[in-house]
Amino acid sequence: METGTSAIFEMDKKLVYMMGVRPILRKNVLFSDGTEDYRSPSEPKTGDTVTIRFRTARNNVDSVWLCMKDQTISMELETQEESFDYYACRIPVGEDNIQYYFKITTGFLVCYYDRRGVSRDIRPEYAFQIVPGFSTPAWAKGAVMYQLMVDRFFSGDLENDVLDREYSYIGVYSQAVKNWNKYPAEFDVAEFYGGDLQGVIQKLDYLQELGVEAIYFNPLFVSPSSHKYDIQDYDYIDPHLGVIVEDEGEILNEGDQCNTHSTRYMNRVTNKKNLEASNQLFIHLVEEAHSRGIKVILDGVFNHCGSFNKWLDREGIYEGKEGYPSGAYMTADSPYRNFFHFHNEQAWPNNGSYDGWWGHDTLPKLNYEGSRELYDYILGIARKWVSPPYNADGWRLDVAADLGQSPEFNHKFWRDFRRVVKEANPDALVLAEHYGDPGDWLSGDQWDTVMNYDAFMEPITWFLTGMEKHSDEYRGDMRGNFRNFKNSMGHFMTRLLTPSLQCAMNELSNHDHSRFLTRTNHKVGRAAQLGCEAASQDVDRCVFKEAVVFQMTWPGAPTVYYGDEAGVCGFTDPDNRRTYPWGREDLDLLRFHKEIIRVHKKYEALRTGSVKFLDGQDDVICYARFNRREQFVIILNNDTVSRSLDLSLYPAGIPKECEMEQVIYTTGKTFSTVPVHYEVKQWHLQMFLPGRSALVLRRV
Description:
Layout: H1 6-18, E1 39-40, E2 49-57, E3 63-68, E4 72-74, E5 76-80, E6 84-92, E7 98-106, E8 109-114, E9 117-119, E10 128-130, E11 145-148, E12 168-169, E13 172-173, E14 175-176, E15 191-192, H2 197-202, H3 204-210, E16 214-217, E17 221-222, E18 233-237, H4 263-270, H5 272-291, E19 295-300, H6 372-385, E20 394-397, H7 407-424, E21 429-432, E22 449-450, H8 453-465, H9 482-493, H10 498-501, E23 505-507, H11 516-519, H12 527-530, H13 541-553, E24 557-561, H14 587-602, H15 605-608, E25 610-617, E26 620-626, E27 631-637, E28 643-648, E29 658-667, E30 670-672, E31 677-680, E32 684-689, E33 693-699
Parallel strand pairs: 11-16, 11-24, 14-15, 16-19, 19-20, 20-21, 21-22, 23-24
Antiparallel strand pairs: 1-2, 2-6, 3-4, 3-7, 5-6, 7-8, 7-10, 8-9, 12-13, 17-18, 25-26, 26-27, 27-33, 28-32, 29-30, 29-31, 29-33
Helix pairs in contact: 6-7, 8-9, 8-13, 13-14
């Protein structure tokens, strides 16, 4: 019940003091964060007035203060509910960033509250922060994403398949894999399974039924490899994924690896009719995806390109072709000469002295500092693909921190990149691949968010499996270590502003690391040493389901790596790039994914609500997701044996006496959505949870 007056609150306190009783400060109930309930508007602009709120237990504190750099403001009691008091104050938003924390007093007791929670001391590094004008797209907050490597997903067009000996790459011939179920070779950059955009279009209904809200495509642009992180032409979709209208020329003869003879490949990737038709197919794909409510995110590989790239043209693919100037490898007179940094100015023709990313000559590093033309060209590419008629909904940025030769230049580039992308499409997402602290790029003027390794993939992998994300190490001291898990999550989540955290890409698996299901078998190594079969041996689907429950109930954008939902296993790349197992899916895992995705999408608290740990011990995690209207409790028991739990739900904003309803429950080899009810008394919930299980409860 709400009274809405400070007077009644003060009267209640005086009665308590007259009785000679001092209330105990309920520190575990103190709460605030950057969500809409506690900061309104949650993404304020310059000129706005923002309301900041802080929650305490009812009648439990004397005062709450909002502390900023040059000002301390007394917060007033705004509302009083049955169990909680909400304090509030309003502050104007100027052009400068605002950092703040809270000071709470009860009698002689003083404590502070920041993004890590309650503290005896002021911790500036964990202060809340408002960046005026910074926002992330509403559609991306909590969006269910699906990472898709097109070649390995589904083939819808047999006429565009890469041919055997169509060309040579890194000393091997291109090869069309005839057996869809074949494991990837140890060196599979020139192996192609035939998946394409037409295949994706044919499977959009499947993705819609699964519950996908955004597709993140691994690179689609013209490239010689199967992974396509060696871009050949940023202006066009690869016709091997798109459409081949005119198909002329010859493949290489056995023993001949000179790509100037690969006339079939040349025609396929330089013929403007093929290139334009492929771009048109992409336009159609985006239209079909959008009609189903699915966004499209492209992979932007802008730190480096490929040695086949038309600007370098080390293979002679473009030399002499109409409309294509000579590449910088061929001649110093190339208009692209400054797109690359050459160390030997006397080496032309065939100058191989250019910088390669990590020394790889197949991945020439782009020389932005030396070429304004390159700088502007790539910004034009950034703008082009999020604008009509292509209308992509964002970029994922490959090795984004590596771009350029200095941190200062890197930040300048990404500021300009963000500007042109947001001018073209204000709702486009700018999401970067990054390992380590991303704070320098997430200050509101560069990236929107990141692939969430530090505050998602790594901590949950260590806790549930004890495995390193490449399956390169097993550590028993990390498995089930709740203290390490909580501290890691608590620290690394503060490196992201709340708008960034809400759309951070939360993946369990991806194209760079072992499949999560494989990590559950604790086998240390890679396919080359252990064999591909070992990746699916002794896996634990119960642990995998725990991980998926966590993924779908933790703040961020839960991102499913294609095939994870169907039980695909695999060691780190390239073994993790197996094909989708059409007709051989693990149907239980597939049904489970559909249900937990449905739950995630149904409730706003699971998309943008607050999060708070309620309890934790070795092998057990318990946390709440909540807003003022919805409250959820999630429990993971990763032990092999059952646990009896006595949980205090008070910090979750749950009433003193209420019922909790089971939303989904996983155990053994099954799961349940039967709505079992649990009674909460005096904020406590007592329950029994079997080993290797997960439970999601909703307050009714």
